[in-house]
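Thread title: Can someone regenerate the structure for this chain?

I was given the following input by a collaborator and told the matching structure tokens would be attached. They weren't. Posting the sequence so someone can regenerate them.
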Amino acid sequence: MRRRPKAAFLFGMFDLEEGLAIDHQYDRSPAVPRPGKPVVLRVSTPPSIEEVAVIAAVHPGPLTASQVQDLGRSYPARRAAGHWEAVIPGMGGEATVHYVVRATGRDGRGWYADGKRPEASATVFTHRVTDRRPPAWTHNAVVYQIFVDRFANASGPVEPTRQPNQWAGGDVHGVTAALPYLEDLGVNTVWLTPIFSAKSYHGYDTTDLYDVDERFGGKPALEALIEAAAGRNIRVVLDFVPNHLSNLHPWFIEAQAGGPKRDWFFINADGSYAMFFSSTGMPKVNLNNPEAQQAMIDAARYWVDEFGIAGYRIDHVLGPEESFFAAMSTQLNAVDPELWLFGEATATPAFCRRYGSVLDGATDFLFAYALRDYMNGELSATTLAQVEQEAAAALPHEDFAWVRFVDNHDMSRALHHWDDDLPRLERATQALFDLPGVPSIFYGTEQGLTHEITTEVGGLEVGRVPMQFDPNGRLVAPLRQMIQQRMASPIDPAAPVFWSPDGTASWEWNRRHASLEPRASSPE
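Best answer:
Regenerated them for you:
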């Protein structure tokens, strides 16, 4: 049996200064601040801390820590059962709140959550006070993720490439041609990996945020897809990457030349710059710059205004500050209240609390890895149940759309680890449809696509194999049935999940029986 390597993602990227940890991490009640309701903020500190205060300012943002303290009001915290609690009074209507958490030690030194000093490096926390919940249509959404270059073109499926980073020839025309196949499966939401102009086959290094790459068919291909998909009651969600761009993007070229956009990026005096991990081809955008922030939001709005897309899967939400997402969601929600914004958050549900009021949902990576481990016999049913419930404990399903999956484009395919054990993949996929959350199917799962190369050799791209379209594919009929059952008996996102007392996991049992005492679906 192949064993998967441990996750390459860092869960909970906490920037704690060594020696002292003032810890907040968006620990709040309610999980999503609502109009008229006070918000309780919890802070953990070492015993040496004698005073804690939250300084909060209502402002569209972005704000620096100094600006928050200049504009804001202080709310003192009190000690409570091993931590501190501060209360921000209820606010009417929609508001964006920025705050810092300041702690003072016995020696008079000031510290800021999360674990920082001095003030210049303090974390500015941001949340929206809002009535918003995920769009109602997402409660019955079945997402099908398509890696466009590896899917199909108008002539049919693409061929394998000689090199993993080569273009394979898939385009948006191929997605349109596949709509009858997807409709027959029961899919009602298609998520496309990036299709904007880019220098790579994967598209995560955009060179033009306002154009569809000609290799994908240009804007006419996207327009045709959205029109044809609407005729089949299928929504189209695009991938949007605000954290970084290509080093060939005009904004960055102007910035490197010393132009007005230099502050739109993090460029040092020696010419080096912040980037997406270690990729020099993907410079990080300074979304704390108000002009850069608005320019990025304007680009996102363009595809909503001009093409009527149904939503965005937002790449690498761990990169930008929450103030960016607060501004983005506020503006885009005003354009289309039914627009769905969910983030790729490679972190624990507790860490994802920060997105509870600024996005509609996030990917549940912890559940994906736990489900794989459970199916591998490496995790008990009791532990899997605890992991599954962790998402709702952090952000209840009715308030936040947790996107759940077995495979995606940054993972090796589960079948690779399970030695082509198809029944195991079927059971894991069934879990997505029997449990709360939005099920997301990676293209070709229903065909039983897999690969021989390992992630140690091929990296995180190994699962991006050419699509097949066999109507009698290995899991086509079972997946179709799963979707039909989900549509016939939708899951109420507000209802708790029932697990048998001994932790035995039978997802069909969980949905059909409600006589046992439920586990709480919310920490409140």
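The chain has a mean pLDDT of 90.
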